[in-house]
Design goal:
The protein folds into 2 domains: about 5-170, P-loop containing nucleotide triphosphate hydrolases (Rossmann fold, 3-Layer(aba) Sandwich), CATH 3.40.50.300; about 190-290, K homology (KH) domain (GMP Synthetase, Chain A, domain 3). By secondary structure, the chain is α/β, with parallel strands linked by helices. Helix 5 (about 130-145) links the parallel strand 5 (about 120-125) and strand 6. The longest helix is centred in the last third of the chain and has 18 residues, at about 250-265. The two termini are about 35 Å apart. The protein is globular. Strands 2-3-1-4-5-6 form a 6-stranded mixed sheet, with helices on both faces. It has a 3-stranded mixed sheet with strand order 7-8-9. The chain has helices at about 15-25, 70-85, 95-105, 105-115, 130-145, 160-170, 190-205, 235-245, 250-265, 285-290, and strands at about 5-10, 45-50, 50-60, 85-90, 120-125, 150, 210-220, 225-235, 270-280.
Length: about 300
């Protein structure tokens, strides 16, 4: 009587998809910042209980591609239509008709044509009022007459239990897809690179976060310490100088903050080395993107 299935989370950038994933799984498996396009990969987070396994899939926010990197990010979104048992379409309460029209286009039609159970997650209700919420619910009901709508505040952990209960009720009966002690299918090196990249998004502004990529060059686990050598690649010499900062202070801050979180994640002492290199136009170079792990 075991249930298991793939629950794929999709929606625009910065609506709270990654925060929801982390709430569902109970662990930080997807980095979160207040900047758009933080998520670049398709990340599986796995919730295991004795009678079910839910494989959640976080995806990049839906955008109009400007680089080959964006094209690959949108392919991750498209890939969710091949294996979904349930869709969670995440949006936020809005009073702006233009934003709502953007929600109501191509991706919604793909969901409808897929004929999979769909839950509409109206996130960030803590930033709205009751009238806006009721108006948004009515609009979404007009688009998805059969879909259940869940008002949610992911940052406040509000509405999470109700969504999980609904997911479990409609999951198909299956054996587990992954071992029961897994919380993700990604390797440790991936999470290390994501932790460093999160700090770049948190502590730098403008183009810097979007023009950088983190690559783990080596990951050596010894008895008492894990030695990690990482590279921050950026597009321009001027960006390299900003990342390093005056007398290297900015890069030292990134390294210090990252090491603390990596040690917490790996539960072991970490020696972290970070250097900065330039790789021009890496966002449009398909071979470089594949080396960075952007593969479908």
């Amino acid at each position: 009587m075991h249930k298991s299935g793939f629950v794929n989370i999709i929606g625009k950038p910065n609506v709270g998809k990654s925060t929801l994933l982390n709430r569902f799984v109970g662990e930080k498996v997807s980095i979160t910042t207040n900047k758009k396009q933080t998520t670049r990969h398709r990340i599986h987070g796995i919730l295991n209980k004795s009678n079910f396994q839910i494989v959640f899939s976080d995806t990049p926010g839906i955008i109009k591609p400007s680089y080959n990197l964006h094209e690959k990010m949108m392919k991750y979104v498209d890939s969710t239509f091949k294996d979904a048992d349930i869709f969670l379409y995440v949006t936020e309460v809005t009073s702006d008709p233009k934003k709502f029209e953007f929600d109501n286009n191509y991706i919604i039609e793909k969901i409808k044509k897929n004929f999979k159970p769909t839950l509409i997650i109206l996130n960030k209700i803590d930033n709205s009022n009751q009238i806006e919420l009721e108006n948004n619910i009515m609009k979404w009901q007009s688009f998805f007459s059969k879909a259940k709508i869940f008002p949610t505040a992911a940052t406040e952990n509000f509405g999470i239990t109700e969504i999980l209960d609904e997911i479990v009720s409609i999951l198909p009966f299956n054996k587990p897809y992954f071992p029961k002690d897994y919380i993700s299918d990604k390797p440790e090196k991936f999470f290390v690179s994501e932790i460093i990249r999160e700090k770049i998004f948190l502590y730098y502004d403008k183009e810097i976060p979007y023009s950088t990529e983190v690559y783990i060059e080596s990951f050596e686990e010894e008895t008492k310490v894990i030695k990690i050598r990482s590279i921050i690649f950026t597009s321009k010499e001027s960006q390299k100088g900003i990342i390093i900062g005056t007398k290297g202070f900015a890069l030292k801050k990134i390294g210090h903050k990252s090491r603390i979180e990596i040690e917490k994640f790996l539960k072991k002492k970490v020696f972290l080395s970070i250097i900065v290199k330039i790789k021009k136009n890496w966002r449009d170079n398909n071979r470089t993107l594949e080396n960075f792990g952007y593969k479908i």
